[in-house]
Amino acid sequence: YSQAAPLPLAPFRGFSGQAPSWYSSLSSQFDIALHYSITRFGLLVNHFVIYFVLFSDRLGRVDGYSTYRYNLVPFEEIRRFIIYRNYVSIEAFLLNLFGNLLVFFPIGFLVPIWRLEKTGCIRIIIYTFLFSLCIETLQLVTKVGVFDVDDLMMNTFGGLLGWISYCIIRFIYHKWKADYKKKEEKGKAEI
Q: What is the pTM of this model?
């Protein structure tokens, strides 16, 4: 029986050059590979979000607008899309109402994995809001989209849903891991 060499630590170093706190608690090659894969997936999602909100031809982002467009009234666009859902395409309706949730969902899920410290609900809300605010501001300044307060709210809520999913999956994973360890110890004790 030969044990595989551990994966390199480099992909998990934070901006400080230190290994994240969770790295030392990883007990198997599987855990390390899983975190490495999630990190790579997160980078892909980040690129997708930037393309989606700034450069997507399908959303009319290439030509842009001749003036600055913005909505500062909360729930105005959401209400408009619900009222006129029969007059807009189902794709536009779903994209506006659920697209913002889905696009920022991975951010709420991945930030706790990337951070060196424990990440709580308030911190996720702040990070997601600030990231969304940057994107909405870029859309306004570059005139490729509309600065929309409803998007800020939906994006932030999407990040919060991602964080809740992360917490649920983490709880299930740790419970499964503890149960597996108990079964393994019980099996060794019987031998």
A: 0.73
